[in-house]
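Final report, Chapter 2: Outcomes

The project's central promise was a pipeline that accepts a single protein chain and returns its three-dimensional structure in a standardized token representation, suitable for archiving and comparison. That pipeline is now operational. To close this chapter, we reproduce one record exactly as it appears in the project archive, with the input sequence first and the structure output second.
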Amino acid sequence: MLRQHKKETFTFKQVHGKPLQLDVYLPDPRPTVPKPVILFFHGGYVITGDRTNCPPWLINAAIKRGWTFVSADYRVLPESSGVDTIQDLCSAYAWAANELNIKLPDLADTSRIIVAGSSGGGYCATIGGVQFKDPKPKAVLAIYPMADPASGRWAVKGKPLPGQPMGDAAPTLAEIEKRRSDGEVSFGEPLPPDRDLSKLARLPYLRFIVQEGLYVDFLSGVKGLGTKIAEEGIEKAVPKGLYQIFPVDFGITQQFPPTVVVHGTADRSVDIGESTKLVEKLQSVGAKVKYYAVEGKDHAFDIASFECEDETEDREASTVVLGNSLKTLDSYVV
């Protein structure tokens, strides 16, 4: 279970008249001096999931340290594009940096914001390492991130979601096109407690986009861009105005914040090669990074873990790795 805390919900912007919200998990009792903040972005392929989809071990680690944990919603595909998503990520960061201590005085040291995320949220956290300024994030924690949305996994037709059959694309495409033409927006949806994807209302969108190899098209808002990248290469195919949605290819410099990357070697949903590409790019520019490859673990291996820092001898190896990743994160925010 989660450690003792309080939770408050705030609206950080309005999108088409709809409140876009974030949850703030407060240590209870509150710290006597301002402490770091974790700003977390949920997983769900940037198509499903919402701010309630957080790893409990990370919330508990924050509460244990007296840190504030913030989890934010954002616009998701396919109703919106990745550019829209980035606008929301930046708004959430600006709220954490500028408004958090107004709403909850003297709680947070906003010069020490850690940007974190899992899966699609790991992609969002990577974008944050490039985009977020004033102040620059103190660190980035990317947990099995979708770090390379231009890879063949997302841009090639005929690669369905793990455990999901290929389906008839036409009805889902028609529904998506109608929602987009009607100007609909979505902030995702809660994942079921048992993480059974078949219960998701947005599963048809997710299954369709992945099986048809259209992820890049919907992320960019440019029809055919995924195919063009596959044929011409990303540097030639992507216009400069869309560099921001491909942070590993176009955004990472030596100024990228110190980073921790965690990924299971047996991940069937997001290949570990995406994290390897991120880590190698960070290393190539001289940015600080620590890579934890978790042997034999699949996607979302950590989501049922509540504690990972107890020193019991029978701890699972993956739990030890999560604990070690936190030690590295601690060293980054001292």
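Archive annotation: The radius of gyration is 19 Å.
This record, like all others produced under the grant, will remain available to the consortium after the project formally closes.
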